[in-house]
Amino acid sequence: MRLKILLRRAPFIAAFTGFALFATLLFYFIPQNEFVVDNVVVAPSKEQVSLSEGQGLGSPIRLKIPKINVDAAVEYVGLTPDGAMDVPKSQDDVAWYEPGTRPGEKGSAVIAGHYGWKGGEPSVFDSLYTLRKGDKLTIEDDKGEIITFVVRESRRYDPNVDASDVFGSSDGKAHLNLVTCEGEWDEVSQSYSKRLVVFTDKE
Questions:
Q1: Residue 102 carries which DSSP code?
Q2: Which residues cross the membrane (predicted)?
């Protein structure tokens, strides 16, 4: 499936990030104000596995990435009436698609966060691009469990390339993929030039 992320500006609408979900493995980033991220499309998965692979995990409540000083609340988002994945309320929070894979379960969980904000204010994933192989991050769930993930690689995508690997996994392991956008703002296309995905594996 193609990875198509569009960005546009709406100067008089409150800035927020939203993540649209359709039946394809396609995702979009569409800011509703200047320099804000929007829409990720994922395919939901509710597969349950053994305890060692994720069964019995709670729902995520915090994402911590020490290297980039991220300590973010995790908002649970689902679908809006028009079929879009709902939005995090704050540029400081991240959004996890609740009907999909839980972080720590077998498969690929996806969490997305804002890149940029109106007026140049910082957002949670502004420094996501600095993560490197071997860097660690943690998810805390509502049962008090801490799950550690290790960065495997980062990839930068053109909006029209195939991105099925962001949302799907067939290796029987647990992954957490962090999504945002980056690059230069293009006034003609009203879009950022690149899409950044950081792929991580459960430790």
A1: P
A2: 12-30
Pair of tokens at residue 61: 């409540």
* Burial of residue 59 (number of CB atoms within 10 Å: 0-12, 13-18, 19+): middle
CATH topology of domain 2-202: Sortase; Chain: A; (2.40.260)
On whether the pTM is more than 0.90, the answer is: no
C-alpha span between 2 and 16 (Å, rounded)? 24
Task: State pLDDT tens for residues 127-165.
Answer: 999 999 999 999 999 999 999 999 999 999 886 777 778
> Token pair 């996806």 is at which residue?
110
The shares of helix, strand and coil residues in the chain, as percent rounded to the nearest 5, are 10, 35, 55
111 token code pair:
């969490």
Q: Which residue has the tokens 């200047």?
A: 34
Whether the Cβ atoms of residue 176 and residue 200 lie closer than 8 Å to each other = yes
Measured CA to CA, the distance from residue 152 to residue 24 in angstroms comes to 25
Q: Cα 91–95–97 angle (5° rounding)?
A: 160
> CA-CA distance, 110 to 44, in Å (whole number)?
10
